[in-house]
Amino acid sequence: MEKKLTHTNKNGKANMVDVSDKEISIRTAEAYSEVRISDDVFKAIKENNIKKGDVLTVAKIAGIQAAKKTAELIPLCHNIFITNIDVELQLNEEKKRVEIKSFAKTKSTTGIEMEALTAASVAALTVYDMCKAIDRSMVISETKLISKTGGKSGTYKLDDSNNK
Asked: Has residue 58 got a pLDDT over 70?
């Protein structure tokens, strides 16, 4: 079966998908992003010595807020009711990075992947913003969907075996 883009009309132009006939189901999504940081940034975050405040807490809150604003940021996303959003940030001392995981849940006619991805992305951007005074060479990378459940397309789980 050939897969085709869903956000285009019969003329190939951008179009918001009509989800009014789709079944309501519980849908979840998990996303990931990371920020590679220097030793100096790592130490400052770990010791909570950033002038703007507690980096990991502020980035968590920013990710949650961003998930709730996804439809305002991504033009063809539906505004959906989020029943749960969580963002976890963890320092990885060995790899010198901040690892970010988000989880989003809804009971809706459309998926919640974009909300999870937006949460992880904005949390990563917030880490960068809060730490840029120490080092602007931080790299945001590996933003990806880890999994999704629910809806017509069912369950998706990232096969990350090729990316290690």
From this structure: yes
